[in-house]
Amino acid sequence: MTGKVSIIVPCYNERATITLLLDAIYGQSYPLNLMELVIADGSSDDGTPEVINEWHQNHPDLRVKVIENPKRIISAALNTAIKASTGEIILRLDAHSKPHPDYVERSVAGLEKGLGENVGGVWDIQPGSDHWISRSIAAAAGHPIGVGGARYRYTDKAGYVDTVPFGAFKRELLDRVGMFDESLLTNEDYEFNTRIRQSGGKIWLDPEIRSVYYARKDLKALARQYWRYGYWKWHMLRRYPDTLRLRQALPPLFILTLALLLVLSPFVPLSFNYLLVGLISVYILILLLAGLQLSIKHKDPELIMGVPLAIACMHFAWGSGFLWGVIHPQNQNKG
């Protein structure tokens, strides 16, 4: 292990979890003298910078930089942090994540083995609070019915994928594919990895590279998150239409189908409406079965109803955000 690693972190009002991240980075098996932490802060007003400064005073052997991110968007934060970093390896983390002790070491090892141009791992998704809906959201966020083919949320098998959430890559890669796209307010990881794949590179997912990720605490926050995902996914697909996957098309198609059947229901024979009732019934049954499965797995009976609510929230928010992006492509609302 000889490569210097720059860990870049976008941050905004993360006082509640930033110490968990700092402690986890400090506890990495990778040598401290070969790591630096660059945090791009979007003018946090909850005391996050003060918490970071106090922590750093007690841990001076880890190099920590806090820089301003005036644009207050993730892609700009990543680019700003990259420009302020000095390592030949860039590793991205989030301020509400907690990497396992060997996270950096395994990520660097994957790069050194040439497994991919971008190497990432799997999330251990934890609830944002102990409330039953928070536990349900965390469980749903790691289930294939909720997140489709986002394998980094649930897989135990290594392999090549379309994207990874917190990747590690060599700085020289940026000369080939460029920086993160600051016109996107989210989906910046997927877009970056798309350019890597289009340039002939590969994205490697290793389930031994793990980090704890704290899910949203309530349905309102979850809906805002997934509406934003759907909205900006459409913006990305306008540039890269060949990256569309069936799992991504299903939520907006489902919403459109329901809307069409509801509009037509007063004007068609009663038998036609059985299709609408059947479609909704099958959907609810699938979600209830997912809730039952996860309640048994986690030994938490409250997940039986909570998981269906969370998955439905994810599907409808993502699908409606996607459709809104189609209708209002110039909307720059951050959500």
Question: Could you walk me through the main structural features you see in this protein, from its secondary elements to its overall organization?
Answer:
- It is a single chain.
- The protein is α/β, with parallel strands linked by helices.
- The protein has two domains: 5-216, Spore Coat Polysaccharide Biosynthesis Protein SpsA, Chain A (Alpha-Beta Complex); 237-327, no CATH class.
- It is built from twelve helices and nine strands.
- It has helices spanning 18-26, 48-58, 74-84, 103-112, 132-140, 144-147, 173-177, 188-198, 219-239, 246-264, 270-298, 303-327; strands spanning 5-11, 35-41, 63-68, 89-92, 97-99, 118-126, 159-160, 168-170, 203-214.
- The strands form two sheets. A five-stranded mixed β-sheet has the order 3-2-1-4-8.
- α9 (219-239) packs parallel to α12 (303-327), α10 packs across α12 and α11 (270-298) crosses α12 (303-327).
- The longest helix has 29 residues, at 270-298.
- The chain starts with a strand and ends in an 8-residue tail after the last helix.
How would a textbook summarize the main sheet? 5 strands, mixed
pLDDT below 50 for ≥5 consecutive residues: which ranges?
A: 331-335
| CATH topology type of the largest domain | Spore Coat Polysaccharide Biosynthesis Protein SpsA, Chain A
Q: Could you say which overall geometry the principal axes of the C-alpha atoms support?
A: globular
Structural class: alpha/beta
Tell me the CATH superfamily of the largest domain: Spore Coat Polysaccharide Biosynthesis Protein SpsA, Chain A
Count of strand segments: 9
- Indicate the CATH architecture of the largest domain: Alpha-Beta Complex
CATH class of the largest domain: Alpha Beta
Total of helices? 12
Query: How many domains, in number, for the residues?
Result: 2
**Computed Rg:** 21 Å
